[in-house]
Amino acid sequence: MKTIGARIGVILAMILLGIFLFISGKEHEVFIENKGEKYTPKNAYYILDGEKEIKIKKKKKKREYIKGVNHTIEVRFKDAGGVEKKVVKEFKTKMGQIITINAAMIESDSWLKIEELKSKK
Amino acid sequence: MENKGKKFLINNIVPIVILVMIVMAAPISGLSGGYLVQEMISRLSRNSFLVLSLIIPVVAGMGLNFGIVLGAMAGQLGLIFITDWRIVGMEGIVLAVLISLPIAVLLGILGGYILNKAKGREMITSIIMGFFINGVYQLVVLYGMGNIIPMTNKKIILSRGYGIRNAIDLKNIRQVLDQSMVVKVGEFTVPLFTISIIAALCFFIVWFRKTKLGQDMRAIGQDMEIAKSAGIAVEKTRILSIVISTVLASVGQIIFLQNIGTMNTYNSHEQIGMFSIAAILIGGATAAKASIPNALGGIILFHLMFVISPRAGKELVGSAQIGEFFRVFVSYGIIALTLVLHQWRREQENKAERKKMMDMQLSGGEN
């Protein structure tokens, strides 16, 4: 009985570990765009999860791949007055969602756009 | 003294022959020492886990487990799933191991059960069993995946909508283990994390041999009938040895493929058994005796030959293809030669034993 219990325990632990690894290791697609409603900087620079800084030109959209659930994005750009700004935001990724981050609107509330993926029939 | 030298020569004839070939071919190949050392470090970290998985069945007297192909298939199934689910990095590797574990255990139990039915002919049985399970694997991967087992990643599915492509790019986990902890020693790059995993396996094998189960396996390997009369569950222990070997092979195949970065879905596992066995035999192991130095030394010798011979062939006859033929011929030839030598040694030992017994009986009769 004790042995069966231990075996079930090991199997359960393995399943739980598998679920944890699935969530924390899952790769998600994120789109970064530089297109504001009132003002769009000529160039914006972003750092996703502390990785390399990437430049995004005016009215361009880039696709990035990130791993896991919790993420940070650091955006650097010059505002309409020519003042250098640096904004850091946090966001979460979930399966079945398309996330678009707008670097030009990073200071406003509508910096993050989440769309649910539609299943194909 | 002369007898001792002769005995040493007979016992180590295979590594000595290969070493002589390497020493002769190395200067012809024109490859630098630094290049060869770096290649050996990389190949040791890539192959050691697979070759070390062969030791435990030898201890249990089951010969060389050509059935490690079963474990390799389980490892590859784990890799197919994590590629389909887009699990990346270290998490991907660990999840692939977790997925492959139950499959490897089941295949190991099946293999062990069949090998128990074919006592004394384990090696040939495990070769044929590998071919049989390969058919089942191909059926599952070529027809089942995308049809019965849902697959979402279009990059790995054939254009017809089901079945896995011939080659899978493992870019999501490429060299994750090898590059997670790298140390520079002079001009050489050492993948410390992978080497630590291999070292841990070596310690496990040393520890395992001292446990009750390890001692039981050794007793079975020496004489199955005596082990049975001593109360050891022979069949169960033999199955366990194959299960351990298969599980280790599945992890070994994942380590091997993460280093290469590409998986040949229908071929990657096929050569594994043959090449791993050639490597351990070149290191001086036999079907009845294998150790960690045999495995590690064998990998170095085998891969030195692998790296040197095509270049030496090219320099000698102007065709790299000749070198390729040469190394294939040597790797299979070595397996045949070692098995013949092993049988010859056993016959010599039996002959000496019989002679000793007869001498004892004769001297006893005279008294």
If you had to describe this structure to a student in words, what would you say it looks like?
The complex is a heterodimer of chains A (121) and B (367). In chain A, 20% of the residues lie in helices and 45% in strands. Chain A has 1 helix and 8 strands. Chain A has one helix spanning 2-25; strands spanning 27-33, 43-48, 53-57, 61-67, 70-78, 84-92, 97-102, 112-116. Chain A has a 4-stranded mixed sheet, with no helix packed on it. A 4-stranded antiparallel sheet of chain A has the order 3-2-5-6, with no helix packed on it. In chain A, a hairpin with a 4-residue loop joins β2 (43-48) and β3 (53-57). Chain A is elongated. Chain A starts with a helix and ends in a 5-residue tail after the last strand. Helix content of chain B is 75%, strand content 4%. Chain B contains 15 helices and 4 strands. The longest helix of chain B has 47 residues, at 320-366. The chains are: A alpha+beta (121), B mainly alpha (367). The A-B interface holds A 14, 17-18, 21-22, 24-27, 65, 67 and B 82, 85-92, 94-95, 98-99, 101, 172.
